[in-house]
Amino acid sequence: MRYGCRLASGFATVVLVVLAGWSGPSSAQTQPAAAVAQVKPPGLQCNTAIPITGTDPFKGRLAGPDLPPGIIPVDPPTRSSILGSGLPCQEAVNTAGPEEAGLENLQRGFDFYSWRTYIALNSPADGSPIDKSQPDTPTRWEDMDSFKQLLDVMLPPEMRPPKWPADKAEMEAEKLRLMPPACGAQYKPGTMVVKMIEESYNEPFKTGPLIDQQGHYAIFDILMNRQMFGYISDHQLFSRDGQKSAANFGLAVDFPVGQNPDATKGIAGDTGAFMLKVSWKILTPDEIKARNFHMVNALVLMPQPGDPKLKPPCLPETLGLIGFHAVHKTKNRPQWVWTSFEHKNNVPDKDEVADRDFHGPYNFYDINCRDNCPDVNATPPREFWEPDPELQLKFKDVKFKSQIVRETPLTDAARNMNRIFHSMLEGTVWENYMLLSTQWPSAFGCATRKSVDSAVPLPQTDFLKQPDTTCSPAPTFFANSTLETYSQGAIPLASSSCIACHGNAVGFQPRASNPTPGELHLNQSDFTFMLEKAQ
User: Domain coordinates of the chain in residue numbers?
Assistant: First the structure.
């Protein structure tokens, strides 16, 4: 989620489960949760009622070409349990399981966690279940009490510092305070406001914009949850001056972790830090009518042109969700867990292109293009990258439409996991979205090491792991066709790897004025490039 790189407490009615059998909890199982129950703060919170342990309830191997018989349809009690299980506080994975290899069982556990996370984040903001949502139903992550847009945190120095308001009225007042003047007259409560900067249209490593088949720019946005905002606010990291202050000399940023409750240790459980990166497509009237995208009514403030005399317009648009990164820092994964979804009709796999086995039409590939087509996965002409206010969000080169293919096809296991969840979400817009994969630090001994320095505050992350601070990401390479379009592939140090790239993240805080000789200073901003956007 690098700009240049690659929830209300649980549901109103939650059917709680223990994954080992996906049966209802016994009274003995509920007692530890009661012992650590406490009043939760506002905003989207993980389900701490009963920690979910073990594996998913699906019988048979998923890491093969065929889905084992008997899984679909998922029986109604299990379906209700999964769809209503809430946001996980942390992952639950095991090397043991139905797959042939321990690594496959672990990946399966992370992918199951990712689907549960995706469902919890995209369930209706009013607390109703996801299978009751419509394409334009506001989601939990879009609610102002759940996540805050990055550009509403990293404010210009002349503005008052950001805050997380206490109630809906204060949230709306804060939104109006931060409203771009060009958007004010058009704003209505409930409208999403997207403030664009270069990174809102330019892909990682400034490799260029992504242009859909109607000639519009794809739009990117980044958000953080309350816990992540709280850490940034407490340490004054929302401004460059704050990051450079004496209080932050030598600060190794260490965001709070998600963890399950543990009554024996007095741990109540917490969501921990979450960050999101989303990609949007400007929908045409026909696409709005077809209702195949999750969509929002938005005001999009175009980026400031190179000429400071020009004022960017604020455009009313209906946006359709095309890409979704959810990144969660957990107790056992301080390198974070990296989840990625996208719309199933974004692009074809390269194997499908080779076999002419298309399932389009696609948002970023024209199956009928024969002559004068852009090269596959080519960036647009460099001289036209910057949006022209007069053209609004249409690309200047009217002949150019991105021709994007997925370089790394989904694994059989991911495809089968998607088939299962699509069957449970049939009839909703969410059956149009697929999990690409989940990236996680696979070297558990490395990932779970804590600092031996008692002066290091909780969660006591050890930032001096050698030789690998990323703890061996699995899978090694990982890209979303809309968010890391031009860095797909499997080339070391060049192709997209979320953890490897974000392991280089830094902010503006300086080294300590009297560092210990030979001391290393790594992962200065804790795997996020958000801090570099401080003003």
Answer: 27-239+269-533
